[in-house]
Amino acid sequence: MNRDQVINFAPGPAKLPQEVLEQAQKDMLSYNNLGISVMEMSHRSSDFSKIINNAENLLRELLQIPDNYKVLYLQGGGTGQFSAVPLNLLNLKEGHTADYIVTGAWSAKAAKEAEKYGKVNVVYPKLDKYTTIPDPSTWTLNPDASYVYYCANETIHGVEFQFVPETNGVPLVADMSSNILTRPVDISKFGLIYAGAQKNIGCAGVTLVIVREDLIGSAMKECPSVLDYKNQVGMNSMFNTPPTWSIYIMGLVFQWLKTLGGAAAMEDINRKKSEAVYSTIDSLPDFYFCPVDKAARSRMNVPFRIGSPSGDETLEKRFLEEAQKRGFVSLKGHRSVGGLRASLYNAVTAQDVDALVTFMKEFHQANQ
Ligand code: PLP
Known about the structure:
Blueprint: E1 7-8, H1 18-27, H2 46-63, E2 69-74, H3 77-89, E3 97-101, H4 105-114, E4 119-122, E5 147-151, E6 153-154, E7 159-160, E8 172-175, E9 192-196, E10 207-212, H5 229-234, H6 244-260, H7 262-283, E11 288-289, E12 301-306, H8 313-325, E13 328-329, E14 340-343, H9 350-367
Parallel strand pairs: 1-13, 3-4, 3-5, 5-8, 8-9
Antiparallel strand pairs: 2-10, 6-7, 9-10, 11-12, 12-14
The structure holds pyridoxal-5'-phosphate.
Pyridoxal-5'-phosphate (PLP) binds near residues 155 and 177.
């Protein structure tokens, strides 16, 4: 199949912008007329320095990152940061305690990992299903916590914060792996933000960390050197060989985002895209079901069921088969929750979403 016959709704690694792939293809064998690929270039070369610095400058511009924040390009994915965050930050206060706001599978995993290193306080009783964000007035935040942690967009459950939690001065840590640069964000409200690249800002292999300077340098002595933000800041993310190709691709995505109008423009496009899918679901209430409370619905990942709130397996299987025939790929829900999920990251266009919505309506007509 050709690329133009497929629409990719994958949850990550996910669709990349056509322009980015075309530029990467042009540069593949000989970057900038150097006769070598970025993959073959020394990370210590001046050419690679330009690539990494250019990516950082673009990111700083796109997110208006204040000067007292450092930008790191690390490896180990979001999962690596589940460990790096507590290893670097729990020591900030004597109690070695952190508050975790658990709204889905990813924040639950992060909380479990942090328990290895200190005391984790989950700010409300465990939810029996991840379909909502409990009202902040019911949270019990510990003023002596070293940090407060949350996942801004739960990729599996389709639960997204539409607000930034208030922490009364305790550093706020956010996993933005699946919604960074999909909407504007006030960096100054955060102690640390991290995001794997493979959904909205590039390909797998690099994890972006944006961290406030005063939080760097307190890592536990057990913290592996490669995860210690201080080491990575001191070496401009080159404490070990960085994921050079992934950083280069990320820079191309940042350039593409800038050309489109940055995070504010993406927010507008993403709101319209997700509204198109949610309104289709809501307009056919006996056929399509979205389990997530309206106020917590993700603009990035839309989970849904067909036939009944718990899903009619025959109908859902048929939906996936028919979708595949039209070139729609990766609409299957995560194996832990089942059902369907459409991931609508930045590179998924309004036309892609229109095609999906048309198909959803036709499928309803034929199978109601
Ligand atoms: N956090 C979120 C929100 C995710 O969606 C994922 C993966 O999909 C992760 C963390 C884990 O990322 P990785 O697989 O890069 O370790």
